[in-house]
Amino acid sequence: MWLEEFDEIFKGFLPYYLLIVLPIFIIVSPVNPVASSSEFPAFRMQHYDLHGIAHGCRSAGINLEAKSLTGWSTPRHCVLTKLKDLTVDNFRNIKLKAGALLIMLPENISNLNVEEQHHLLLLENAMVVQEVSIPVYFAKYSSQLEIIISEVTDNLDTNDMSKSAAEALFNSIAANGYQIVVSSSSLGIKTDAKVASIHGHLPGHSTDGKIPTIAIVAHYDSFGAAPELSYGADSNGSGVIILLELVRLFSSLYTEKGRNTHGKYNIVFLLSGGGKINYQGSKKWLEDQLDSLDGSIIQEVSYVMCLDTLASNESIYMHVSKPPKEGSASSSFYKELKTTAAELYPSVTVEGVHKKINLADDILGWEHERFSIRRLPAFTLSSLKNHKDLRKSTIMDTKEGLDIDRLVINTKLIAEALARHIYGVTNGSVLGLSVDVNRKYIETWVNYLCSQPRSPQLLSDKDNALIAVLKDNFNKYLREVKVTNAVPDKRDPDFQFYQVTSGTVNVYSVKPAVFDLILTIAIVLYLGAIYLFIERFSILYSLACTLTVNRKIKSQ
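The line above is the sequence of Nicalin; the predicted structure tokens follow.
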């Protein structure tokens, strides 16, 4: 009787006890499917449109299995690798066939050797020149992330070295895997984006009638493979810092009492935005200055001097779109710059570089070309000889790699040459003890500018703090300081920015999919055996009783 009741209880409540027993089995299982998780800040690759052409990666969210650089095979995999191991060919293959890419940066990116730097420059250029459909993220060095990369790579090596198919299968089941997850909001266009340019001037003094004008220009933004990693210490932090020092120096000269140092030139200072997106700030500023009905002092400019990347080496190149005529103001300045360099710093070479503007190109080489197109005499001073030098756009351009001594020397050279030209001094120095280049002032600006990334999309928000600081500095020394904003046209925008520039990478330690399959089969077989045992319990009990009775009879 009791056996029948016991049998009926199990049969009647079978669905209910399975719901209880199955979770218990999973909880007490010695293998946890998700053993641990790690969290890292990550920085998304560039994503913007310029003149209707898409640049950078177009996706942001990731939820894929992590695989090594040599172990991935399908779009279901996220390639996890160190930057030094990734090549241009690897990247091109990954962007076409993999699901995502997560790159760990070197521990100290400013201490790479020449070969490693060249490798990174080529890789960055390959990343941003065209559209990439998969999400690409950069993560700063972390010992924990390095361990994860090593484990992902070691798992592949272990499987490859297996002596038999059975051993390979066992290793694939027993190995730990990782799931890469980046939760991201939708990639909306920044509808309120604007590129700000700041200008002010020092009025000249002359009794001869019209006062000529000199314009000094530098773009303040930076560029690299990832916006949040683009600090631009040299390109173009150095150009901005030299301009700010020139503002301070000539403000003192133009206002110093007791000395006849008020120059016979108006000096216009322009900090332009959007330099790294084809000099959109200068373009908008020129339109406002030259196409307006009000007169502008820039219309009578003697020359426009643009400053770009001036702390790279011991050379200064004067880039022009058209060689200056003999006797022109820009020609006189060039000669003065060469003379000043020979007198003060003989190791510094000054050379002229002529490059015609190709109107068929979508991207201009140097900022002075924006002014040359509008028929203004202009040139760019730079330590780089070629506008295609990849050092203009790299995440390696950090404060640690900036040569401040070289920056100070080039600042003194440009300031002294400009002062000699403005005041017509042929012998001796204009700058002296009372008014001279201040190294501490330069170092202060280096520390401030290089402490924050300055990619254009990061500075396009309303009331940006950096723009406010630069404007306040102009207000301190210059007159009629104004801000000009370049806004993309709604119908045919020259540029567009997108919202997601960073995220959080969650790395979960998981078992591979084949382990889940084997575990599921084992649980099904186990529960099936239990079910059959309960379903046929009376038969098994009778069989056990029969065997027990037979043994007793035989023993008697």
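Note on the example: The chain has three domains: 2-27+531-555, 34-189+502-510, 195-487. The longest strand covers residues 34-44.
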